[in-house]
Amino acid sequence: MRKPPTGKTAHVDTFVRDHLPPPESWPDLLYDFPEVDYPPQMNVATEFLDEHVEAGRSERPALRTGTEHWTYGQLLERANRIAHVLQDNFGLVPGNRVLLRSPNNPMMLACWLAVAKAGGVVVATMPLLRQKEITVVADKARIGLAICDDRLMEEMETAYNACSHLENVVTYEGLERLTKEKPETFDNVDTAIDDPVLIAFTSGTTGAPKGCVHFHRDILASADAFFKNTIPCDENDVFTGSPPLAFTFGFGMQAAFPLRIGASTALIERPSPDAMLETCQRHRATVIATAPTAYRAMTPLVYNYDLSSLRHCVSAGETLPLPTFEAWLEATGHRIIDGLGATELFHMFVLAVGDDIRPGATGKPVYGYEAKVFDDDMNECPPGETGRLAVRGVTGCRYLDDERQSTYVRDGWNFTGDAYKIDEDGYFWFQARTDDMIISAGYNISGPEVEAALLAHDAVADCACAASPDPERGFIVKAFVVLNEEHSPSDELVKTLQDFVKQTIAPYKYPRAIEFVDALPRTETGKVQRFKLRQQELEREAKA
To answer: Rounded to whole angstroms, how far apart are CA atoms 217 and 40?
Structure first.
């Protein structure tokens, strides 16, 4: 493993670089691939936009919605104008963080690229996040400027008053007014290839968010190593899907990968099953990316739509159940490409396509990555034995100022929190999560975060959350609640607690099942044994 070239940082504000983990705690990064042999100075926005326009692709479609089309030239012009606003009106200097709050629409992507052009660091957030969650992210990243879709300003205004460093919030409408008098061209900041450009936040097993720092190199490397060598696409492909652009799965499949090859994306703000199928039909989509839950929901509806344009159906976010794979194959003739990725590594690293798909298995390491299964003593497990999945490749985990770096990275390997086994042919088979993360319908939900929300209600004396099997969502969050003496179990109280959680944290995280119990299983030192609750739910499912 050779070290890649290190460029001269353009960051004037060095907060992110200063709060990276020490290099000795980084995972091993594999750069012995010609695709990732980048020059020391490189800006990802230049590669995604300026290079295409300079190559004569200005009139090619870049972004599509139900009502509008943006060409590469139009997207470049909009991003350039916004970059001027960031610098001229808000004093952004390279290295400053900018929070984006928006559903999937062209304006969000234009803002993302504008921040990159100006040498800033993007912190994109889920539209469903509440004030508390926004505040934690903004304070952790010391964000001074936020750009928000006008329709999502209610929570943003509340967060503005609570954030320690947030000085300015501008809506899309306000931003549009400011861009009108700005130049159509912009000189992109000459960032180093290893300057941070993205902090992707993900909930950790303790509920505290973890900021995963990605460089310009990381986003390009995922596209050039994994994507180009694994899922064959070209500039004529049309991508679509449901994951928010704030998720790295969504940003990769609907922004980074299509923009890298000069293709286009049909963005959906409210991706219901019918909306995704209608989008595929309307825009002749060739690539769709979503979670297994969505494929299950779309399967009985596909006969109402023309999906003849589809070539690749990509799944991630949760393990793909075999019945879902088989039902979609029967209904559409397409084998779902099931992939495993992590926010910490930006995107996918285990996957299988075409004839290499083995139904029920996740697949094999993709180009640019290697993966192994270890036991607790770092001994490699033999085929058929379950252990901890470890990965390394062209991207890797770098948490922003977080001691959990030493937990995720060990001996140069990224440990994803998944239990896997490998068969004799080298295929990886998912077994379970090894932490308290609950993956439901493609969303990563921290059990302790839901517990904290429940404990804020005066009826709850104690609680613990665990994943419970569900035929539609894969797993759901189930809360085991010990009530205070003055409260009694009831269906009304279940709904009250669920609504309370929805008002406290993002609604998709609420416990879809609540069981009232007298006590929680604990160790002799008082720690909750959530694994016993998980096992209990799995045993109940097996007996059902």
So the answer is: 10
